[in-house]
């Protein structure tokens, strides 16, 4: 009898594991994977000023190659529970659709990787021809301080080596098979601060209005693209998110103006080259204005898993099961893949993301069955001929 991803997903959805609470989700995985012969370790990380977070690592096999399924069991809060058609932690199924917070992001994905692994092991005498592991954090939706970065460091200190990783985040846009994520843009927050000289609006010649300067500088910063994009990435984009003067007085020229922005950048840039480009554009547009950039510390660098044998293997599995060849994409926000990429090649492939983080987050049970088949095909191809 094959493992049932719908039952596993349902059991996980009934665990109220809103970040940073474990909610029973990791205990459940410990029982299921421990029962299949995995060595399970649970580790809690702490940091002053942050919630303690439980994390989870389970491995079967000792040999290479080592494929790890990564993910998170924590979920974002359900919001107004009365607006849900079915309770956010009910695990209700109606008309072939499973409801619950985390259905697609990403307890559903974890359920499929667990079911596929159980089936793979059952078909191969209970052992992989190499190693399979699960790298599960409880701190993806939070600040990620006590989650994947520390868990990866912890595994490395114990001599664990990963060859490849499938991160089961909901990567697909419309149908299960349309998108594999092979990288992400970097993210850089900053602020442009312009200082002038305050004064009376009726005597502008005695003042230096920073609003005039910042408007011109913002126009200049946005006037030309930051780059043309690259083989695997769209062009980088700067987006202003706020302009603040904080002036409540109608007849006062303020002395400072500030514009906040975020840049999503591709592999044409490093954070250093990006800062240099903006500094030079700002300098040209500034005239006599006094200005500076304030750059936020950021841990979201651009990264790319080069298309090659591993992306081909995963794409091939998707195509074998669904008939569709997925696009290799680098769009969207950041994910824990930005940490995993320092340890091994990583791709993201999971469910369809349309309802993630929303009221009535849900997944067709048929998608859970299909994703399990895809992961199963990944495992078969990965260990074939070993
Ligand atoms: Zn997620």
Tell me the series of helices and strands, N- to C-terminal: HHEEEEEHEHEEEEEHEEEHEEHEHEEH
What oligomeric state best describes the polypeptide chains here?
A: single chain
Shape: elongated
- End-to-end gap: 25 Å
The Rg value, from CA coordinates, equals 24 Å
Q: For the largest sheet, list the strands in their spatial order.
A: 1-2-6-3-7-18
SSE-based structural type: alpha+beta
Bound molecules: zinc ion
The largest pleated sheet is described as: 6 strands, mixed
Residues in helix, % = 25-40%
Mean pLDDT: 95
Number of strands: 19
**Uncertain residue segments:** none
Features of the shown structure:
single chain; 386 residues; alpha+beta; 6-stranded mixed beta sheet; 4-stranded antiparallel beta sheet; 9 helices; 25% strand; binds zinc ion
